[in-house]
Design a protein that fits this description.
Strand content: 15-25%
Number of helices: 13
Largest sheet: 5 strands, mixed
Radius of gyration: 24 Å
Helix content: 25-40%
Shape: globular
Number of strands: 13
Strand order of the largest sheet: 5-6-1-7-8
Bound molecules: magnesium ion
Number of domains: 3
CATH topology of the largest domain: Dna Ligase, domain 1
Structural class: alpha+beta
Distance between the termini: 60 Å
CATH class of the largest domain: Alpha Beta
Order of helices and strands: EHEEHEHEEHEHEHHHHEHEEHEEHH
């Protein structure tokens, strides 16, 4: 190997040890299905958000990919491309349970740093494991542990690098079953071919700002100064990103839960406003149940509607801190009527592609903001809210309890689970499995979210 002169790029490589191991499970949902159904091991499998031929796959096993099937492929197309392919409706509570088993297994080898999503997490390498050969040996032990103690169907790509950002990029390099070590001295050349938008932290907005600054490839990004990055991002995030990319560890500030909500893609059966409204209400009921589960109160509700083939509509309402689902539903209905009116004015009979509801402005009882607002709220209002919140908490408990019993008896929630639950009459007849359990990989749903 050629010895390289010390340049601004590689100076201080020694101060950027291999500190993180990032693990990204490959086609995770499909892997869990293969794990639970051994007859599917090594076979083409897709996972769908619900049992419908009109939806697209949210995961495709690596065995399905040579047939041209990937995430997003429509079920009907997948059946043509690969006759006999296994089509499995998603079971999110199971994916959460297996996620916990996997984390527990990996934590036997190495301490957890941060969970990124249901199939991605960063772990910390100890000082004695920072030598590349030792780090690789640790990765092999983890992989063996997963295969032996959880199951061989759960395959993963592993990246090892000085920062979490670089370790994640390293894990992305080889799929499935990759193991990539990215040392400080391998930079920037090892990543020179990466498209900017493949880098976490560069979304469409940042990409556009980078382009305006003349930064359109990895080398130009690499050659920015920290101050320039800060100016382009318009915040300290740019500088933090620069450090992560260049292999310098920075401390992340703890984030506070700031909103609770759910999003749902609508199938053809639910695309008219009446049906979609019921879905939005169900999502809101779920969000409110989680709000109470966390012991939090909300002071604002937002609704956004995605239209087919394009466009959208959104609105929000502010209110005194509350945990009362009746109040939330009334506000949602108000916004929904506004939405319908706006569409009528345009002469549209809209087709809806998706709905999202969020409870924002969260606070816990005893927190300053909440207490201040209580001072201004009508005393009767506060009392009424507490009474109704109490009623809803009872409903939450009954539902959670029924669900636990149902599961102990070996029932699957896919077969009419929700029918056994306490629900509003206006919401009954809604056969939506795993309603509100977010399919996006952006966070790990908690098991309580599946109890309704
Ligand atoms: Mg993955």
């Amino acid at each position: 190997m050629l010895s390289r002169a010390i340049t601004p790029e590689n100076k201080g490589a020694a101060k950027r040890p291999l500190s993180y191991l990032f693990i990204d499970f490959n086609a995770y949902f499909a892997g869990v299905e293969q794990h639970d159904h051994p007859e599917l091991f090594g076979k083409p499998v897709i996972v769908t958000p619900l049992a419908s031929e009109h939806t697209g796959a949210i995961a495709a096993s690596y065995e399905a990919r040579p047939f041209g099937i990937k995430r997003g492929t429509k079920v009907a197309d997948a059946r043509i491309l690969c006759p006999g392919i296994a089509v499995m409706p998603a079971r999110h509570d199971r994916y959460v349970a297996v996620h916990k088993l996997l984390m527990k297994e990996i934590e036997r080898h190495i301490p957890l740093e941060k969970i990124y999503s249901i199939d991605e997490a960063a772990f910390r390498l100890s000082r004695s494991e920072q030598d590349p050969a030792r780090a690789v040996a640790t990765a092999h032990r983890i992989r063996q542990g997963i295969a032996q103690n959880v199951g061989p169907a759960l395959r993963a790509s592993i990246g090892i690098a000085p920062t979490r950002l670089l370790a994640k990029l390293a894990a992305e390099r080889v799929k499935p079953d990759g193991l990539t070590v990215l040392r400080a001295e391998d930079l920037p050349h090892a990543l020179a071919d990466i498209p900017l938008t493949d880098i976490p932290g560069i979304g469409a907005g940042v990409e556009a700002r980078l382009a305006r600054a003349g930064v359109n490839n990895f080398m130009k990004l690499w050659n920015l100064q920290p101050k320039e990055a800060r100016a382009i991002w318009g915040s300290v995030m740019g500088e933090r990103f620069w450090h992560g990319l260049h292999g310098y560890e920075t401390v992340e500030e703890p984030t506070k839960k700031s909103m609770i909500g759910h999003s749902r893609v609508l199938t053809r059966e639910h695309e008219n406003p009446d049906k979609a409204r019921i879905v939005a209400r169900a999502l809101l009921l779920k969000a409110a149940s989680r709000l109470r589960h966390y012991g939090m109160h909300s002071s604002s509700l937002s609704l956004s509607v995605r239209l087919r083939p394009e466009g959208g509509w959104q609105a929000a309402r502010r209110f005194t801190y509350s945990q009362d689902s009746f109040q939330f539903l009334a506000l949602l209905d108000e916004m929904w009527a506004e939405f319908c009116k706006s569409q009528r004015r345009k002469g549209h009979s809209p087709r809806l592609g998706g709905v999202t509801v969020y409870l924002h402005g969260l606070a816990k009882q005893g927190e300053t903001a909440l207490e201040q607002l209580d001072l201004f709220a009508e005393p009767q209002g506060v009392e009424k809210d507490a009474r109704r919140a109490g009623l809803w908490k009872v409903i939450d408990t009954i539902n959670a309890d029924l669900d636990a019993k149902f599961q102990r008896l070996g029932g699957s929630r896919e077969e009419g689970g929700p029918k056994r639950h306490v629900a509003l009459a206006s919401q009954s007849g809604l056969a939506l499995n795993y309603l509100g359990a977010k399919i996006a990989f952006s966070r790990v749903p908690e098991e309580a979210e599946f109890l309704y």
